[in-house]
Prior knowledge:
Distance between the termini: 37 Å
Helix content: 40-55%
Number of strands: 5
Strand content: 25-35%
Strand order of the largest sheet: 1-2-3-4-5
Amino acid sequence: MLYNEITERIIKAAMEVHSTLGNGFQEVIYQHSFAIELSLAGLIYEREKTMPIFYKIQQVGTRRVDFFIENKIMVELKAVIQLEDVHLAQAINYLEAYNMEIGLLINFGAKSLQFKRVHNNKILTQQSNLEKQLSNQENPLIQ
């Protein structure tokens, strides 16, 4: 399954939870409800998966991601009135620490569901550099 297809299904599940419950509950209520919707959507997930955090090559701790879906996408849930830059920065930091490409930040606490798709730019840069190296190897005249 492609990233776009998975993220669309995840967002649809979150929208169903938000339209049913509205805002105003604690995050844990949304986590449980979201898990039910993910199951109904046929998505494979792990809830509160403990993942290692590395500094260079040394493991320096662990952090639990709210949801790890289809072994590809990290989802961080919030139940706050408004998403702030710190929440986005946190989600991007987790992606980088977990060495994952795509994640979603979903907020159930606002009047309307808020979500942001986040990308690990370090992985995208590494992929771009690798593609350039492979391209240069295929055509040795390119310097």
